[in-house]
Amino acid sequence: MQTAPPVRRRTTRPRADALRNRERIVTAAREMFVEHGPDVPLDEIARRAGVGNATVYRNFPDRDALVREVVCSVMDRTARAAEEAIAEGGDAFSALERFVHTAAEERISALCPMISSTFDQHHPDLESARLRVERLVADVMDRAKEAGQLRVDVGVGDLMIVIAQLSRPPAGLECLSVDRYVHRHLQLFLDGLRAPARSEDLPGASVTLEDLRKS
Questions:
Q1: In the 8-state DSSP scheme, what is residue 150?
Q2: What span is annotated as the signal peptide, if there is one (predicted)?
Q3: Interatomic CA distance for residues 111 and 135, integer angstroms
Q4: Helices (H), the chain
Q5: Of 70, 137, 139, which is closest to residue 108 (Cα–Cα)?
């Protein structure tokens, strides 16, 4: 007796247009969170993305899910910037500079109010993204320290705080109106990180990302 061949189950993959719509929603949400904060209406995000409200809710059942996706996407892009800086090789401090300027373009300052919101900050996706960023940024910084080009009393948290602060507009100013100053001020900061340092000791201790999460 011959047995029937096993039935192959067909796995359903998201259609290309569905993936594009999801990406457009996340991109639009990121832009609008930067411009208007995390409480921007989802209807406005749908309009910016060029999709219907139903498409937004089909991909993200609630605001928390969308905010989490935006935070993870920014962290992932920041991690890729660190990977690219490492892969390009060459001068260790130049790699650090490339990372800092690229990370600033991601507007990580916009993550601060979102991370402090009500959604689950310990979601596995968020934890994984955080650890990846911390490991890669530490790698970029360690290479510069080992080359004697970066002062040793600076931590990953120090660097990320300054990127966030210098890419955030002063109170009362439109976010996008100060873009032309961001990279100028970041370079001034980076010049101050070079070793040998002008000041022997910095006040306090170097900051880690774990310190920031506890504060």
A1: B
A2: none
A3: 19
A4: 16-36, 42-49, 53-59, 63-87, 92-105, 111-115, 124-146, 156-166, 179-193, 209-214
A5: 70
Written as one letter, the residue type at 182 is V
pLDDT surpasses 60 at 172? no
Helix then strand then coil, % of the chain, to nearest 5: 65, 0, 35
Residue pair 66/56 in contact by the 8 Å Cβ criterion: yes
pLDDT band at 10 (very low <50, low <70, confident <90, very high): low
**Would you state the structure tokens that stand for residue 68, as one six-digit string?**
């989490």
Asked if 129 and 71 touch (Cβ cutoff 8 Å), the reply is yes
Please say whether the beta carbons of 37 and 113 come within 8 A. Answer: yes
Cβ atoms of 99 and 82 closer than 8 Å: yes
Give the rounded distance of the alpha carbon of 81 from its chain centre.
10
Tokens of 93: 């401090």
Domains and CATH numbers, the chain: 15-61 (1.10.10.60), 67-196+205-214 (1.10.357)
Question: Which tokens go with 27?
Answer: 């991109």
Q: What's the confidence (pLDDT) of residue 126?
A: 84
What tokens does 215 get? 């504060």
Cα separation, 215 vs 202, in Å, equals: 20
- Looking at the DSSP bridge assignments, the partners of residue 150 are 194
Question: CA 175, CA 177: separation in Å to the nearest integer?
Answer: 6
